[in-house]
Amino acid sequence: MKPDAPDWNDLPDLEAIREKYREERDKRLREEGSSQFEELISEGAHNDVDPFADPGFTREPVDEAPTVLIIGGGFGGMLMSVRLREAGIHDFRIIEAAADFGGTWYWNRYPGVQCDVESYVYMPLLEEIGTIPTEKYAHGPEIFAHAQAIGRHFDLYDHALFQTQVSGLEWDDEAERWNVSTSRNDRIRARFVCMANGPYSKPKLPGIPGVHDFEGHTFHTSRWDYDYTGGDTHGGLTKLADKRVGVIGTGATAIQAVPHLGRDAGEVYVFQRTPSTVDVRDNAPTEPGFAETLEPGWQRKRMDNFHILMDGGAQEEDLVGDRWTELTNGLYEILGAHPDPESLSPEEIALIAERVDLRKMERIRGRVDEIIEDPETAAALKPWYRYLCKRPCFHDDYLPTFNRPNVHLVDTKGRGVDRITPRGVVANGKEYPLDCLIFATGFDVSQNYTRRAGYEVVGRGGEKLSEKWAKRTSTYQSFFTHGFPNCFFMMGFQSGLTPNIPHTLEEQAQHLAYVIREALDRGATTVETTQEAEDAWCAEIDKGNDFLSMQASCTPGYFNDEGKVGETEGWLAGFYPEGFEAFFVLLRAWRASGELEGIEVA
Ligand code: NDP
After folding, report:
1. Nearest residue (CA) to ligand 1, atom 48
2. Which domains are delineated in the chain?
3. Which of 288, 321, 450, 451 has the most neighbouring CB atoms within 10 Å?
4. Least confident of 71-85, 115-129, 189-203, 303-317
5. Which residue's CA is the closest to the ligand 1 atom numbered 6?
6. Is the CB of 417 under 6 A from ligand 1?
7. d(Cα 554, Cα 26) in Å, to the nearest integer?
């Protein structure tokens, strides 16, 4: 896809834009950083119960000693299970807090929920299941149903304990097993533990005065209350017709939910701190005959094509061809037209990349002017930062929603809402009375691992993971940490992450299934990384990469620890510096060598 208007020569002065980005960033920097948020807990108006599960569910505690325990039944845990089966390991148990598989797609059922990454590369195991998604960008219910289909196809339901939370993991040095405690008093002693808890599993609320005081109806978007709103994920929120609804947050979730609220609710107040980039969605049903064009191995080929382009690599064709890959294509277009691209220094290439970014951002800002009728609202909806400073968003109905007379943008100019009262929300010093307040305020991505997981991990000699990683998050290959044998982290930090998260999970599942298979074949009972290997990996991570360096000057958000890159030890605490394709290549080479370098197998 060729980047469209504005023309290269029409771009504003780069220094003036940098200054504007700095100014906007400074308005949003907060001393508290990531600690400005609080967890969603059962307190006051908020009750973190699962609205989709049977509240009366009970079962007898289990007492067992599986070879592998997998924590999490989202795509990470499911892919792990599938790759274990493939490796001939069938003695595994899955523990999941929700009442079904699906992870993020189980919880997020808000109206309009949809995946921003193309379904043909995002939805895992399509060829194995024999499914072709119905749309280029699938909606939540279809992805959730696909997770259930994976569960059925690979007989994973028999392995799962649902509505169960792990409450602690403790290494037993004598038995060489993990003692696992749960919310249902199970007694599980697992040889290996794979933690597939996911980065977006803990909803968060702004830690502002009065956050629990609202006396109207309130919920977080990942706990959507259809009993109150009416309708379902497709919309039709008829019970809101006479209600005043407030939404705090304008990230990827709000972008999808607000058009439905605008259509169905009496009055809608959208409280904005930072506008998102909202590019065209251009969704379409899967073309008839698409399946017939595909050859075996097509999904893997398409996934590789997408993530190599996203990593800045070259590909002969762009199979996905959407607004994600446009950025790399834009860069290659300029470099390709250069008479001698090899002669360009890294600084010169960085400058070209910055201008490609600016061109994209100018187009996105221009789109706001084209769509929004009120100039003041249009000005407030324009994002002033580099494209990848925040998670890019795509939608064709979000911006037009602000032309509706019943929808009001309350722009807080970077300050956020002031406080919440029993009657409503106070922003810019004014109280907005509401019947319903919806928190589209995201997830605890930047907090340390054990807080996000919700349990402590106690390793060799009683060492606590929270204490070890309070000094610094440290792993080998992102999976292993010294002192915690047979304990593996999926979707962790210090890894190579693509925007197509199930792709990363697939690579990780293959790697860990290999490690466990090798351990069993060698008759080993423990697998543990050495301190030396861990230190060397951390030194590699500390070299940093372009994404993290750019984040230092970005507007605050969870990509940069709310403006304090590297200060907290959250999910994004460092990446493999060479990029995600190089990370996957490294893992494959490591497996091919068969040496288990950096790992002690006993
Ligand atoms: P985000 O963390 O992206 O957004 C939270 C929003 O809440 C931000 O707009 C933030 O503003 C705002 N906020 C926080 N505190 C305050 C405050 N005190 N006052 C006013 N506003 C406040 O959460 P989301 O749930 O939207 O998305 C989380 C992630 O989940 C996404 O980044 C994406 O990776 C994934 N996702 C993917 C989807 C898809 O594929 N389509 C759909 C939905 C989510 P500020 O920006 O200023 O911090």
Report:
1. 557
2. 33-42+203-281+356-439 (3.50.50.60), 63-101+156-202+445-601 (3.50.50.60)
3. 450
4. 303-317
5. 249
6. yes
7. 10
